[in-house]
Q: What sequence folds into this?
């Protein structure tokens, strides 16, 4: 069963009753030495698996030299990472922070600063952009809002994957459209192929800022380094976190010169953003996500989905996947949280999302043998 927090924690999480103390590759180990296949990756974070020797070396080398000096001074690791991110994204400038919600808060501020009085941002129903007040207000999920009213003003919510709804929501105060290329927390909801292209065209026509939230989809998760690259477009702002440093806290905002030109010293900042240790790990992550890794994401994602479908489990009502971002839609009589617990009891770590979706976010380095372990576990659970 799921275990509540102990007496020292604010009651924000329902934790599973297992403590992991070690990781290696695609596996986690608990205090008793039990081995678990990790098909969640810390919620799309440890994209290259656990205890990757090159990442460990990069972090340790930096930690042995310098932990922190603040953004008042030059930083070669930051410069190196910024260069890599801009070259690979097609954008021009980078702002470093600590997390996804901070990246989205910065994106909101940057768009409004560029707007010079225009402030309304259109977001999509079911979206998830974070839990701080600005990003929470941008996240159009009423269950997240309960108890936190009044929300921050300046957001208009429209149905996801509906370009006409965006057009109808435009008015003279609109400055940006903010979307996820795939809605992760809403249950791996994948839009039509031309959705992002249509948003890009609409933003071009109306001098709007296109903000793409790649917190969960970035860093190879969908088979491209960034999910928007499937559409051959370049947004004005892209927000990043999760997999960027394989588990060390780091977020980033990428933006065009057009947007960056509106930002001046004092407009925004972060004490810990771009910490040298996290950035050093992120530099190595970028180097390690090669075309070979991305090819593996696409082939293993396809294989995983095919094998789930071939299991012919009647309780499975649909499979949603892009790369190694997979949602298994279960029948309404299945409690997916209890299902996740059943997997955990059989030494496989999975997640949940949206409306009765079992969520799989395995490391990008998985092999067919790991997929077979998952499928065998899935079959055993439902045969039982």
A:
């Amino acid at each position: 069963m799921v275990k509540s927090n102990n007496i020292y924690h604010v009651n924000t999480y329902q934790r599973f009753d297992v403590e992991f103390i070690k990781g290696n590759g695609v596996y986690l180990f608990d205090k008793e030495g039990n081995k678990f296949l990790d098909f969640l990756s810390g919620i799309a974070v440890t994209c290259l698996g656990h205890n990757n020797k090159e990442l460990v070396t990069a972090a340790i080398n930096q930690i042995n030299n310098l932990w922190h000096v603040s953004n008042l001074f030059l930083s070669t690791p930051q410069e190196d990472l910024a260069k890599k991110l801009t070259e690979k994204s097609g954008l021009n400038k980078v702002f470093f922070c600590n997390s996804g919600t901070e990246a989205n808060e910065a994106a909101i501020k940057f768009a409004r600063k560029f707007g010079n009085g225009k402030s309304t941002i259109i977001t999509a129903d079911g979206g998830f952009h974070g839990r701080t007040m600005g990003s929470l207000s941008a996240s159009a999920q009423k269950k997240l809002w309960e108890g936190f009213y009044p929300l921050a003003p300046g957001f208009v919510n429209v149905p996801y994957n509906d370009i006409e709804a965006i057009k109808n929501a435009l008015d003279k105060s609109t400055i940006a459209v903010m979307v996820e290329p795939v809605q992760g927390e809403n249950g791996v909801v994948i839009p039509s192929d031309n959705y992002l292209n249509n948003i890009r065209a609409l933003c071009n026509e109306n001098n709007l800022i296109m903000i793409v939230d790649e917190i969960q989809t970035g860093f190879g998760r969908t088979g491209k380094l960034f999910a928007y690259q499937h559409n051959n477009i370049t947004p004005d702002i892209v927000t990043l976190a999760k997999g960027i440093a394989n588990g060390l806290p780091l977020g980033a905002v990428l933006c065009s010169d057009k947007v960056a030109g509106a930002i001046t010293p004092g407009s925004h900042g972060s004490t810990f953003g771009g910490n040298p240790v996290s950035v050093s790990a992120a530099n190595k992550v970028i180097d390690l996500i090669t075309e070979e890794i991305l090819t593996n994401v696409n082939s293993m994602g396809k294989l995983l989905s095919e094998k789930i479908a071939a299991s012919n489990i009647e309780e499975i009502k649909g499979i949603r996947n892009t790369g190694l971002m997979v949602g298994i839609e279960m029948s309404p009589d299945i409690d997916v949280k209890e299902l996740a617990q059943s997997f955990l009891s059989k030494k496989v770590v999975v997640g949940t999302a949206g409306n009765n979706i079992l969520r799989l976010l395995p490391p990008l380095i998985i092999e067919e043998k790991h997929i077979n372990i998952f499928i065998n576990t899935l079959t055993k659970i439902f045969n039982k």
